[in-house]
């Protein structure tokens, strides 16, 4: 017997927003920060099997009609689209688990995830309610001020009251009641019939429907006189048995051995009391729930009903969608006569069908990752496709960056499509056309996917002549020819290059034509090469499609034949696994499955220890990476034709590799679900992280900013930001114990919120390392030299000679002055004087002309010198304690770091600008303190040499400078003697080691 239970008062309220965000962030944050690659965002995700939600809004004074918004599910997150141009508005954050149902209420978005129902406003989570039974929720709907949800097993309906809250951090939702259904009733969906106060219709997988009053314990007798006896004392108003809804409840579901009585869709019609009901058997019932009478019945062939939709612009038409991807249109004025059948409207089961209110536009979504809009130009004419957004139906297995700007990706999938995915904007993504397949599929009454080309196994391109002719070559599964494509035309190219019989072959070998295995387009874009499974390598002209040349592998090396073949290997038994050409078209490199690397005219044959699965050539550096079957990547220098590196450490078969643009890194993915990055010059593993699913293909951006990956369980392409582009990353060897799990990038990315997890990984916490800064002292008795190049000091010492030699023929032009209203400060670098707001009293004091002239005359060099000397002021009597006090007082190195960053000419000018005795005294004191600190010895020597040559006569003529000069002389002699002793000791040690060895 159905019953109703009140909310349990002992159930703790949901956590507040701040606490919840901290908990969810902590649970999702990886245990360690990524070293090199940080999750950025996911591309190519449009929708999944969860039905979308349509919302229309009419604005006062609008002339373009109501605005249409679409809410689609992306797994754990959701996306909101603008229906006019199908542009992406924003994406929500990740939920705790995969989303099972969605609903919209004004500006709010509600989603069901696991046992939670989460509310979002403008993409930000504002509240969350939990199922007190801690079971997953399968369906939610907003009914006035109530939130209704169904348990996953369909035995209960939960009712929350949302009327006593506002969308703030203090928002709380009360659980009003829990309605339990009978043992033979598993609820699947909820519908609120129009004008029915506080009443909902609940559909079940057994084919029954029930009408419930969720607000009170008794039904309204005046509105439902027909159900008077059933509705007086119970919340259950009426039960609609499957025998009245279906013609034959025992009919089997389409493509299944189970009975097709389960209700898959219940929708409201424009007529009050009338609803449309769809079943898994393909039957459709138009039912009057007030009179408990079926008005008409239709049956759709080709799969069970997945969605229904009534047209609302005055034409009585019902649209139904099947699990096979077909759309049927029914004329309700003619008793449900079939108007049109759109076969293959989608490549997979259609999940939702919605009519735009008041418009002849039908919107559909499907499990093939697409949303389409269909326009009906007349009531009886078939619809035409108006606009759509789509992605890959199945996970892509081959991705490659296209071009040199890093804005486009070529992606191939098992859904037999080749797509261009835009990294910059989702609306720029498209599928390369394979011809007018839709018209052919409609005329033949076969699925559209059956007419597409087989899945792509290899792809190559060259953008050099992309504006002139076809620029992409592909091979397909079990095909004996390769196809050309044009990216500019977004379609299939003109030619198909097929392999012909080998004219040199004899007997049975003459008719052997193998399947195309690999392709390569030359760097110039004029020629395309392909290798077959029978060892044939041929070259065609990309412009004319004429065959230009054939290459012969030649005899198999004896050691290879003994290892892979019994006796002598035939030429037709040697399959080509990879082919490449260098940047100057001098060498064609081919790899075979028996582990050999061959070049043009068999100039050289390199035998590898294992089978060569595939190859990748970095044309700029001449490095050839070979994936071998022994889980090792071998790098070959094509100039010396030797193996220069062997990269190992994989615990599964290597799937794909990619070079960084500068050829310094090699990124590889393998079956152990780990993406590894190797440093090619050292051969070390510098980065490795484990993903939740295996990465089948990887591609490095030509601009060195992103790494793109494709995975086995997702139809999207994932981008990882290169941290080396934003911060200084220290590289060290990584062991297997240091490999940790990293979650895949979300669709939202890092552009929406400063608090996102991915953005914190990109923040540079430490200041950039100054290459000219002196490292700290290793020991007090040692002297540390500066890191500046030797030429810097030699230029400073001989600056006058260099200036005289490089004297310009014409006088240099004065730099353009800034406008009069932009005052500048004196110095080597052009700096604008900031406007300092002073108080009225200070302004009145600084009215004298002399003080106005003095303000702002000091350069940055002089300002840093003054502040530095004040920090290091100390009376020195020559003993060790005072010297130590001097060194400790002189802790700020801003002055010397700034001085070392200046160019020789700028430093010479600043030294000449020291014209007062106070500035000369300060500079001498700074040199003395730097010598006492045992830092920058050779820098101080060079600066001291130039300084004394410039101002020596002034220093000698002034008696007040004698004490400072004596201190500088003593420090100079002491440090010179110390460094001579250290050099002598080092030379003696080196001589002893040399004589001993």
Automatic annotation (TrEMBL):
Gene3D superfamilies: YVTN repeat-like/Quinoprotein amine dehydrogenase. Residues 777-994 form the WDR36/Utp21 C-terminal domain. Pfam families: Beta-prop_WDR36-Utp21_1st, Beta-prop_WDR36-Utp21_2nd, Utp21. One of its GO terms (biological process) is rRNA processing. Residues 71-377 form the WDR36/Utp21 N-terminal domain. Transmembrane segments: none annotated. It comes from the Eukaryota. Residues 20-32 have a biased composition (Basic and acidic residues). Keywords: WD repeat. Residues 1-32 are annotated as: Disordered. Residues 1-11 have a biased composition (Polar residues). PANTHER family: WD REPEAT-CONTAINING PROTEIN 36 (PTHR22840:SF12). This is Small-subunit processome Utp21 domain-containing protein. The lineage of its organism: Eukaryota, Fungi, Dikarya, Basidiomycota, Agaricomycotina.
């Amino acid at each position: 017997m159905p019953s109703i239970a009140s909310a349990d008062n002992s159930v703790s309220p949901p956590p507040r927003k701040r606490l919840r965000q901290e908990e969810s962030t902590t649970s999702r944050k990886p245990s360690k920060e990524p070293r090199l690659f940080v999750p950025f965002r996911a591309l190519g995700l449009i929708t999944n099997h969860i039905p979308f939600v349509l919302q229309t809004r009419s604005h006062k004074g609008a002339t373009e009609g109501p605005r249409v918004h679409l809410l689609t599910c992306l797994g754990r997150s959701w996306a909101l689209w603008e229906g006019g141009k199908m542009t992406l508005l924003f994406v929500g954050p990740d939920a705790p688990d995969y989303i099972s149902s969605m609903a919209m209420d004004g500006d709010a978005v509600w989603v069901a995830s696991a046992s939670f129902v989460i509310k979002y406003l403008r993409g930000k989570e504002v509240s969350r309610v939990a199922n007190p039974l801690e079971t997953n929720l399968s369906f939610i709907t907003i009914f006035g001020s109530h939130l209704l949800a169904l348990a996953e097993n369909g035995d209960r309906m939960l009712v929350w009251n949302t009327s006593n809250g506002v969308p703030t951090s203090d928002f709380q939702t009360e659980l009003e009641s829990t309605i339990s259904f009978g043992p033979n009733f598993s609820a699947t969906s909820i519908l609120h019939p129009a004008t029915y106060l506080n009443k909902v219709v609940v559909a079940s997988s057994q084919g029954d429907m029930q009408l419930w009053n969720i607000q009170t314990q008794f039904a309204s007798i005046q509105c439902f006189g027909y159900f008077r006896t059933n509705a007086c004392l119970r919340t259950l108003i009426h039960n609609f048995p499957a025998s009245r809804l279906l013609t034959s409840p025992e009919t089997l579901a389409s493509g299944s051995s189970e009975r097709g009585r389960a209700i898959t869709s219940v929708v409201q019609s424009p007529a009050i009391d009338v609803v449309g009901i769809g079943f898994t058997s393909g039957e459709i019932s138009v039912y009057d729930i007030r009179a408990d009478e079926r008005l008409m019945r239709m049956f759709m062939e080709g799969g069970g009903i997945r969605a229904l939709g009534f047209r609302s612009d005055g034409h009585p038409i019902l649209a139904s969608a099947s699990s096979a991807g077909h759309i049927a249109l029914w004329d309700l004025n003619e008793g449900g006569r079939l108007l049109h059948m759109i076969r293959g409207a989608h490549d997979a089961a259609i999940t939702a069908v919605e009519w735009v209110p008041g418009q002849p536009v039908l919107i559909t979504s499907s499990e093939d990752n697409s949303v389409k809009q269909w326009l009906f130009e007349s009531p009886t004419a078939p619809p035409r496709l108006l606009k759509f957004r789509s992605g890959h139906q199945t996970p892509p297995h081959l991705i490659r960056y296209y071009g040199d700007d890093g804005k486009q990706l070529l992606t191939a999938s098992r859904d037999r499509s080749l797509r261009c995915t835009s990294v910059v904007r989702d609306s720029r993504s498209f599928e390369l056309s394979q011809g007018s397949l839709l018209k052919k599929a409609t005329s033949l009454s076969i699925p559209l996917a059956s007419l597409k080309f087989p899945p792509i196994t290899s792809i190559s391109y060259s953008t050099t002549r992309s504006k002139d002719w076809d620029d992409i070559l592909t091979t397909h599964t079990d095909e004996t020819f390769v196809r050309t494509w044009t990216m500019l035309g977004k379609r299939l190219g003109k030619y198909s290059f097929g392999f012909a019989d080998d004219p040199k072959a004899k007997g049975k070998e003459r008719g052997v034509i193998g399947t195309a295995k690999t392709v390569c387009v030359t760097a110039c874009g004029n020629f395309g090469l392909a290798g077959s499974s029978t060892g044939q390598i041929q070259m065609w002209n990309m412009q004319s499609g004429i065959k230009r040349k054939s290459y012969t592998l030649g005899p198999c090396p004896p050691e290879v034949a003994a290892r892979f073949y019994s006796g002598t290997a035939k030429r037709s038994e040697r399959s080509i696994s990879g082919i490449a050409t260098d940047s100057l078209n001098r060498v064609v490199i081919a790899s075979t499955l028996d582990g050999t690397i061959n070049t043009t005219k068999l100039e050289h044959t390199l035998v590898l220890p294992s089978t060569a699965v595939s190859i990748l050539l970095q044309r700029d550096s001449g490095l050839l990476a070979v994936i071998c079957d022994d889980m090792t990547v071998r790098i070959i220098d094509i100039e010396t034709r030797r193996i220069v590196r062997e990269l190992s450490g994989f615990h599964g078969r290597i799937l794909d590799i990619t070079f960084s643009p500068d050829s310094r890194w090699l990124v590889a993915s393998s079956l152990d679900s780990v993406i590894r990055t190797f440093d090619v010059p050292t051969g070390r593993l510098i980065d490795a992280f484990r993903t939740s699913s295996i990465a089948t293909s990887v591609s490095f951006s030509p601009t060195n900013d992103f790494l793109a990956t494709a995975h086995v369980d997702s139809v999207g392409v994932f981008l990882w930001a290169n941290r080396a582009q934003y911060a200084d990353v220290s590289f060290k060897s990584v062991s297997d114990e240091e490999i940790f799990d990293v979650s895949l990038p979300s669709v939202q990315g890092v552009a929406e919120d400063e608090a996102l997890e991915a953005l914190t990984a990109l923040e540079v916490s430490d200041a950039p390392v100054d290459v000219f800064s002196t490292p700290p002292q290793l020991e007090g008795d040692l002297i540390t030299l500066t890191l500046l190049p030797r030429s810097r000091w030699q230029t400073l010492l001989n600056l006058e000679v260099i200036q005289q030699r490089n004297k310009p023929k014409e006088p240099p032009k004065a730099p353009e002055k800034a406008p009069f209203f932009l005052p500048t400060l004196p110095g080597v670098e052009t700096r604008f004087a900031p406007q300092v707001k002073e108080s009225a009293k200070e302004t009145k004091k600084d009215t004298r002309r002399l003080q106005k002239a003095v303000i702002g005359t000091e350069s940055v060099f002089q300002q840093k010198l003054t502040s530095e000397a004040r920090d290091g002021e100390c009376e020195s009597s020559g003993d060790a304690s005072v010297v130590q006090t001097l060194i400790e007082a002189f802790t700020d190195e801003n002055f010397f770091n700034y001085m070392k960053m200046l160019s020789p000419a700028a430093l010479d000018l600043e030294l000449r600008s020291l014209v007062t005795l106070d500035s000369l005294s300060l500079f001498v004191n700074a040199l003395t303190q730097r010598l006492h600190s045992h830092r920058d010895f050779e820098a101080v020597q060079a600066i001291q040499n130039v300084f004394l040559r410039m101002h020596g006569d002034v220093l000698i003529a002034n008696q007040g400078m004698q004490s400072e000069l004596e201190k500088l002389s003593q420090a100079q002699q002491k440090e010179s003697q110390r460094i001579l002793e250290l050099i002598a000791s080092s030379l003696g040690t080196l001589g002893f080691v040399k004589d001993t060895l």
